[in-house]
């Protein structure tokens, strides 16, 4: 676009200068023709090229002498008349004479006040200024003149000062090109920060569901180089995450065989307390490895997103807990009562009911969301007596709410556990590896949302917010 603007700008300058030069040359030529025309009428010499001097017939001589110029043969009947007297100059009093010109134009009366005048200006120069003025306007005037008391003559000089003789005026086109060039440069100047801001917004949301894994280099050259560098960095990051997941997966698989042998050997220990400690340590090691592997897979976003029904997912998760007798319930959303406006027929305001018994479809990763919701329910059951699940929805987001009952922890204490491998002070007797909430927070960010906690009357409430699109 910048090159286009420069091209238009160069074309504008060239057109303007060319048109100005052509019109200047045209004005000079018409001025010289007027000067030569005066001396041709005075001395009877050949008129300038393009001008024909024709004596008027006898009848037209009478009309011209009487000032009835519109009645002259060939004159436009509905025309405007401009009478131009050219006085005899002092330097030419012996051979010269004054000139009277009558200019008949279909729609124009020529102004004489702005004609150039200086001391010592000759009559020939005055006629040159008049013919130059005729050439200034695009019209084909009918001109008659006489020198002194001589006969009237018709001056046919439209090939010198008429519309057809005028050069094309490209200055209007040049002005339009200048506007286009200016608009293009302004557009480029305004779009430059917009391009950077747009890419910054895309980059900030790259971890969200459906985010691009590669960005097309568009915009100015500087931005394209930045995008190329970012693509290279993201590729390296993905390779590192994939390598980390492969290593952890391999470690988990390789530890499976010795862990199985340890379980078999632990079963041979006769002391039940010692045997239980061995089995607990083995389960803890396997759980830590599995948690780290799960966290890495969530970071990589390996699961493909799709449209899913959030109420159906919550119903299924809660039903699984209820099937095994766990105290988990799903609280249905209440209908919303909307107050209406007054009618011209009734002074009372009406009411409307918006049912919340409707499906809520989100674009996300179902397995990851199920894991996040399950982790929050497990936390609520670990630290409280029961868990209550509910759903709040608006046009932009959906909020999954898990309330526990009887938790002794506060929201501030639980939010500190979002960092990896962080556990609370009162969790020594509770199973876990310190990655559950970290995985939930990562899944929330992956879906363009967040995980927050707040204190409630019965315990602590977790709010998992995800974007709907």
TrEMBL record:
Xref: InterPro entries: 2C_sensor_his_kinase (IPR050980), HATPase_C_sf (IPR036890), HATPase_dom (IPR003594), His_kinase_dom (IPR005467), HisK_dim/P_dom (IPR003661), HisK_dim/P_sf (IPR036097)
| Reaction(s) catalysed by this chain's protein | ATP + protein L-histidine = ADP + protein N-phospho-L-histidine
Q: Which UniProt keywords apply?
A: ATP-binding, Cell membrane, Kinase, Membrane, Nucleotide-binding, Transferase
Under the heading SMART domains, the entry gives: HATPase_c (SM00387)
Q: According to its UniProt record, where is this protein located?
A: Cell membrane
* GO CC terms of this entry: plasma membrane
Keyword Acetylation among UniProt keywords: no
Please list the GO terms describing molecular function: ATP binding; phosphorelay sensor kinase activity
Look up keyword Flavoprotein and say if it applies: no
- EC assignment: the record states 2.7.13.3
Q: Where is the Histidine kinase domain?
A: 250-469
Q: List, alphabetically, the Pfam families matched.
A: HATPase_c
Q: What is the membrane topology here? A: Multi-pass membrane protein
Q: Which PANTHER family does the record cross-reference, listed alphabetically? A: SENSOR PROTEIN CREC (PTHR44936), SENSOR PROTEIN RSTB (PTHR44936:SF10)
What is the protein's given name? histidine kinase
